[in-house]
Amino acid sequence: SPEQALGQDVTGQSDLYSLGVVLYEMLAGEVPFTGENQVAVAMKHVREQIPDVQLKRPEISAALASVVDTATAKRLDERYADDAELIADLEDVLAIETARSGNVTGEVTSVLRTLPSRKRRRLPLRRRQPVVVAVLGLIVVAAVVGALIFLANRTHHGTGTLAQAPPKATPHQVSLCDSCARDYNPDALSGPKNQHPEQVNLAIDGDRNTAWSTESYVGDNLGKPGVGIYVDAKPGVAAGSMIIDTDTPGYAVTVYARSSKPDPSSFATGPGGWVKVGSAPKVQAKQTIKLSTAATRYRYYLVWITSLGAHSHVDVNEIALYT
């Protein structure tokens, strides 16, 4: 990576750059830079942009070329922040390319079945697929596997400077216990206040193919200020972002945090209650929400759903907190 070539500190983002170079070579059949020696090659990584992979392989989609470009960005603030972002984009590319090709079979089929459910629905899985597209699909999946292998968060030290923004700390996912999620419905007007409590831990099980769901409502009308699910990040963490995976995009959420245990019958904000730390007016299938905690280590983080969008209910497949 450019920062390692100059002897600067190396983070997981440096590994993502290296992975982007590997993906370029897999697609183009050659490395992006050559030179008389390793120093010459390293300086090209510092000073020159990676060549356009579509010039080497015109049949490559713009979506896949964009993944290569983002993974190999010189500036850390333009590069993928973590492996989850890269993997999500590669999954999208694989789904798009396979849907374009028609149908698949054999080993490619078994690989595609590992995609999240919302992406698998777009895939035809019966007849034979053209060899070129099958190979492309396997290349992309191999890159996903490579991401997991390469992402050891190693650190090296040295001297040197880059004409770019200071490196950002790599976000780390907050570890949550297997039973650290609760449904939250304090404004229920009648009937039970719970919202599928037997499903809540599906939203933090690391499997995007499972989900916690709200009850069903008529249109977008909740008939109350909101409903939600919160996670217990004990003993507390100053989270910098939250990523929500969902099969029912389009709903609106506000993210709240607090230090004391929530009262299941009351939704109170302000001192001693819930504090707003982020929001998303229209949640995407994979939504990153920046959180403003002012360095306060909150224990509880609430995904407060205030509208349903085009659906009669909301599915929350995964909630992940990052420092």
Produce the secondary structure layout.
Layout: H1 2-5, H2 12-28, H3 38-47, H4 53-56, H5 62-71, H6 83-101, H7 106-112, H8 117-120, H9 131-150, E1 181-184, E2 212-213, E3 227-237, E4 241-245, E5 252-258, E6 275-280, E7 286-290, E8 298-307, E9 315-316, E10 318-322
Antiparallel strand pairs: 1-3, 2-9, 3-8, 4-7, 4-10, 5-6, 5-8
Helix pairs in contact: 2-5, 2-9, 5-6, 6-9
- Overall mean pLDDT score? 80
Rg of Cα set: 22 Å
Main pleated-sheet profile: 5 strands, antiparallel
**Uncertain stretches of 5 or more adjacent residues:** 124-134, 151-163
Q: Structural class of the helix and strand makeup?
A: alpha+beta
Textual characterization of the structure:
By secondary structure, the chain is α+β, with helices and mostly antiparallel strands. The protein has a five-stranded antiparallel beta sheet with strand order 1-3-8-5-6, with no helix packed on it. The longest helix has 20 residues, at 131-150. Helices cover 29% and strands 18% of the residues. It has helices spanning 2-5, 12-28, 38-47, 53-56, 62-71, 83-101, 106-112, 117-120, 131-150; strands at 181-184, 212-213, 227-237, 241-245, 252-258, 275-280, 286-290, 298-307, 315-316, 318-322. It is built from nine helices and ten strands. It is elongated, with a radius of gyration of 22 Å.
In short:
With 323 residues, this protein is of the alpha+beta class. The chain is built from 9 helices and 10 strands. The chain has a 5-stranded antiparallel β-sheet, with no helix packed on it.
